[in-house]
Amino acid sequence: MITIAKTADVEATASIGDGTRIWQLAQVREGAAVGRNCNIGRGVYIGPGVHVGDNCKFQNYALIYEPARLADGVFVGPAAVLTNDLHPRAVTPDGTPKGADDWEAVGVIVGKGASIGARAVCIAPIRIGEWATVAAGAVVTKDVPPYAMVVGVPARQRGWVGEAGLPLKKDDGGNWLCPATGRRYIENKGQLKPAEMS
């Protein structure tokens, strides 16, 4: 069953998966596709043609501009923004208002299970790898590897995280270990993979 608050604005051409809840004042634009069992918080904006996987969670006032693509299990914190314009201007050089043909939308791609913290800004075009974590308030200007944790302005990598979201710790063998699950990870040339996949 889909739950849509009376004050939410969901276009008829948007696709909404079963079990998804859309709260007050949220807006889902034309052609957007939202998967199953998602939670779209108060005041969230999902732009035209944006694709959202299953089991995603958008906290209040997150802004997801087209043509963003978010995989399954993505978390977007309150007031986080995924941008879509490399050179934003309200007007053209001659002073006339810019229209749809005066710019090219570029998107943010977010991998499975990744988390974007409160008030983080992701400057398109970038890719945030699966299970990565973008800290609250970070400004992301370049791709984030899978399992990486990035912080600051501009965002820089400050470690690795596992699927549980906790920082990984080095074990005696020089590999990485999740303190919550015990899962081991191997780092190779700036990339991290679960040990069983390496």
What is the topological layout?
Blueprint: E1 3-4, E2 9-10, E3 15-16, E4 21-22, E5 27-28, E6 33-34, E7 39-40, E8 45-46, E9 51-52, E10 57-58, E11 63-64, E12 69-70, E13 75-76, E14 81-82, E15 108-110, E16 115-116, E17 121-122, E18 126-128, E19 133-134, E20 139-140, E21 148-151, E22 156-160, E23 169-170, E24 176-177, E25 184-188, E26 191-194
Parallel strand pairs: 1-4, 2-5, 3-6, 4-7, 5-8, 6-9, 7-10, 8-11, 9-12, 10-13, 11-14, 12-15, 13-16, 14-17, 15-18, 16-19, 17-20, 19-21
Antiparallel strand pairs: 21-22, 23-24, 24-25, 25-26
Number of domains: 2
Chain-averaged pLDDT: 95
Topology-level CATH name of the largest domain = UDP N-Acetylglucosamine Acyltransferase, domain 1
Please tell me the CATH architecture of the largest domain by its name: 3 Solenoid
Write the CATH homologous superfamily of the largest domain.
Hexapeptide repeat proteins
Query: Helicity range of the residues?
Result: under 10%
Could you tell me the number of beta strands?
26
Order of helices and strands: EEEEEEEEEEEEEEEEEEEEEEEEEE
Strand order of the largest sheet: 1-4-7-10-13-16-19-21-22
Instruction: Provide the low-confidence segments as ranges.
Output: none
CATH level-1 class of the largest domain: Mainly Beta
Strand content: 25-35%
What's the number of helices? 0
Explain this structure.
This protein folds into 2 domains: about 5-160, UDP N-Acetylglucosamine Acyltransferase, domain 1 (3 Solenoid); about 160-198, no CATH class. Helix content is about 0%, strand content about 30%. The chain has strands at about 5, 10, 15, 20, 25-30, 35, 40, 45, 50, 55-60, 65, 70, 75, 80, 110, 115, 120, 125-130, 135, 140, 150, 155-160, 170, 175, 185-190, 190-195. The strands form 4 sheets. Strands 1-4-7-10-13-16-19-21-22 form a 9-stranded mixed beta sheet, with no helix packed on it. Strand 21 and strand 22 form a beta hairpin. The N and C termini lie far apart (about 40 Å).
